[in-house]
Amino acid sequence: MTATQEKSPARQDHANGTVPAGRTEVSEPAGTRGRTSIADTVVVKIAGRAAREIPGVHDMGGGLSRTLGAVRDRVPGGRPNVGRGVKVEVGERQAAIDVELVVEYGVPVPDVARDVRENVIGAVERITGLEVVEVNIAVTDVHLPGDDEDDATDTRVA
For the whole model, what pTM was predicted? Predict the structure, then answer.
Protein backbone atom coordinates (compact mmCIF):
# COMPACT_ATOMS: atom_id res chain seq x y z
CA MET A 1 0.00 0.00 0.00
CA THR A 2 1.44 3.37 -0.94
CA ALA A 3 1.35 6.43 1.32
CA THR A 4 -1.49 8.01 -0.68
CA GLN A 5 -3.85 5.04 -0.43
CA GLU A 6 -6.30 4.78 2.46
CA LYS A 7 -8.23 1.86 3.82
CA SER A 8 -11.98 2.30 3.87
CA PRO A 9 -13.27 2.44 7.48
CA ALA A 10 -15.68 -0.45 6.92
CA ARG A 11 -12.92 -2.73 5.62
CA GLN A 12 -10.46 -2.60 8.49
CA ASP A 13 -11.22 -6.18 9.55
CA HIS A 14 -8.31 -7.72 7.64
CA ALA A 15 -4.99 -6.37 6.59
CA ASN A 16 -5.67 -7.26 2.95
CA GLY A 17 -8.87 -5.16 2.97
CA THR A 18 -11.35 -8.01 2.51
CA VAL A 19 -14.52 -8.59 4.45
CA PRO A 20 -14.65 -11.94 6.30
CA ALA A 21 -16.94 -14.63 4.84
CA GLY A 22 -20.54 -14.42 6.13
CA ARG A 23 -20.33 -10.72 6.99
CA THR A 24 -21.58 -7.89 4.84
CA GLU A 25 -20.23 -4.41 4.64
CA VAL A 26 -22.66 -1.90 6.18
CA SER A 27 -22.06 1.79 5.80
CA GLU A 28 -25.05 3.02 7.85
CA PRO A 29 -24.69 3.64 11.59
CA ALA A 30 -26.45 1.11 13.82
CA GLY A 31 -28.97 3.67 15.08
CA THR A 32 -30.44 4.19 11.61
CA ARG A 33 -30.90 0.56 10.56
CA GLY A 34 -34.51 -0.58 10.81
CA ARG A 35 -37.86 1.10 11.43
CA THR A 36 -39.51 2.50 14.53
CA SER A 37 -43.29 2.53 14.73
CA ILE A 38 -45.21 4.48 17.35
CA ALA A 39 -48.68 3.31 18.38
CA ASP A 40 -51.60 5.71 18.49
CA THR A 41 -52.03 5.10 22.23
CA VAL A 42 -48.52 6.42 22.88
CA VAL A 43 -49.33 9.72 21.19
CA VAL A 44 -52.74 9.86 22.94
CA LYS A 45 -51.14 9.55 26.38
CA ILE A 46 -48.40 12.10 25.66
CA ALA A 47 -50.90 14.61 24.24
CA GLY A 48 -53.35 14.07 27.11
CA ARG A 49 -50.73 14.62 29.76
CA ALA A 50 -49.33 17.70 27.98
CA ALA A 51 -52.82 19.23 27.67
CA ARG A 52 -53.61 18.67 31.36
CA GLU A 53 -50.42 20.52 32.39
CA ILE A 54 -51.84 23.85 31.21
CA PRO A 55 -53.45 26.13 33.81
CA GLY A 56 -57.11 26.71 33.01
CA VAL A 57 -57.75 23.16 31.78
CA HIS A 58 -60.24 21.67 34.24
CA ASP A 59 -60.92 18.35 32.50
CA MET A 60 -60.91 16.73 29.11
CA GLY A 61 -63.47 14.98 26.94
CA GLY A 62 -67.12 15.39 26.11
CA GLY A 63 -69.97 14.92 28.55
CA LEU A 64 -70.39 11.16 28.16
CA SER A 65 -66.68 10.36 28.26
CA ARG A 66 -66.27 12.52 31.39
CA THR A 67 -69.20 10.76 33.08
CA LEU A 68 -67.80 7.32 32.28
CA GLY A 69 -64.35 8.50 33.37
CA ALA A 70 -65.70 9.70 36.71
CA VAL A 71 -67.27 6.28 37.32
CA ARG A 72 -64.03 4.53 36.33
CA ASP A 73 -61.99 6.77 38.64
CA ARG A 74 -64.18 5.79 41.62
CA VAL A 75 -63.78 2.05 41.07
CA PRO A 76 -61.17 0.64 43.47
CA GLY A 77 -58.01 -0.16 41.57
CA GLY A 78 -59.14 1.88 38.58
CA ARG A 79 -56.66 4.22 36.99
CA PRO A 80 -57.52 7.60 35.52
CA ASN A 81 -57.57 7.68 31.73
CA VAL A 82 -54.97 10.29 30.78
CA GLY A 83 -55.99 10.02 27.13
CA ARG A 84 -59.67 10.88 27.66
CA GLY A 85 -60.72 13.55 25.19
CA VAL A 86 -57.79 12.96 22.81
CA LYS A 87 -58.00 11.42 19.34
CA VAL A 88 -55.00 11.00 17.06
CA GLU A 89 -54.06 9.92 13.57
CA VAL A 90 -50.49 8.70 13.39
CA GLY A 91 -48.63 8.09 10.15
CA GLU A 92 -45.01 7.08 9.58
CA ARG A 93 -43.62 10.57 10.19
CA GLN A 94 -46.58 12.79 11.09
CA ALA A 95 -49.45 12.99 13.55
CA ALA A 96 -52.71 14.94 13.74
CA ILE A 97 -54.34 15.42 17.14
CA ASP A 98 -57.86 16.39 18.27
CA VAL A 99 -58.37 17.50 21.89
CA GLU A 100 -61.65 18.14 23.75
CA LEU A 101 -61.30 20.47 26.74
CA VAL A 102 -63.31 21.72 29.68
CA VAL A 103 -61.89 25.08 30.74
CA GLU A 104 -62.17 26.93 34.04
CA TYR A 105 -64.63 29.82 34.11
CA GLY A 106 -62.97 33.20 33.63
CA VAL A 107 -59.88 31.91 31.82
CA PRO A 108 -59.52 33.29 28.28
CA VAL A 109 -60.34 30.36 25.99
CA PRO A 110 -58.08 31.47 23.09
CA ASP A 111 -55.11 31.70 25.49
CA VAL A 112 -55.76 28.24 26.95
CA ALA A 113 -56.19 26.77 23.46
CA ARG A 114 -52.92 28.34 22.26
CA ASP A 115 -51.01 27.13 25.33
CA VAL A 116 -52.45 23.60 25.03
CA ARG A 117 -51.62 23.50 21.32
CA GLU A 118 -48.02 24.62 21.92
CA ASN A 119 -47.48 22.22 24.83
CA VAL A 120 -48.98 19.23 23.00
CA ILE A 121 -46.96 19.87 19.85
CA GLY A 122 -43.75 20.35 21.83
CA ALA A 123 -44.22 17.21 23.94
CA VAL A 124 -45.25 14.91 21.09
CA GLU A 125 -42.50 16.09 18.75
CA ARG A 126 -39.82 15.94 21.46
CA ILE A 127 -40.76 12.51 22.79
CA THR A 128 -41.76 10.69 19.59
CA GLY A 129 -39.88 12.53 16.85
CA LEU A 130 -43.10 12.75 14.83
CA GLU A 131 -44.03 16.01 13.13
CA VAL A 132 -47.37 17.25 14.48
CA VAL A 133 -49.20 18.77 11.52
CA GLU A 134 -52.19 20.04 13.50
CA VAL A 135 -53.79 20.13 16.93
CA ASN A 136 -57.52 20.82 16.73
CA ILE A 137 -59.07 21.95 20.01
CA ALA A 138 -62.78 21.77 20.85
CA VAL A 139 -63.88 23.42 24.08
CA THR A 140 -66.86 21.29 25.11
CA ASP A 141 -67.73 22.87 28.47
CA VAL A 142 -66.77 25.47 31.04
CA HIS A 143 -66.32 24.57 34.70
CA LEU A 144 -68.19 27.05 36.90
CA PRO A 145 -67.25 27.81 40.51
CA GLY A 146 -69.34 25.60 42.77
CA ASP A 147 -69.84 22.80 40.22
CA ASP A 148 -67.78 20.44 42.41
CA GLU A 149 -69.87 21.23 45.49
CA ASP A 150 -72.76 19.23 44.02
CA ASP A 151 -70.57 16.12 44.06
CA ALA A 152 -69.39 16.80 47.61
CA THR A 153 -72.93 17.16 49.01
CA ASP A 154 -74.07 13.64 48.11
CA THR A 155 -75.73 12.34 51.25
CA ARG A 156 -76.09 8.78 52.42
CA VAL A 157 -79.09 7.70 54.35
CA ALA A 158 -78.20 5.37 57.20
Answer: 0.69
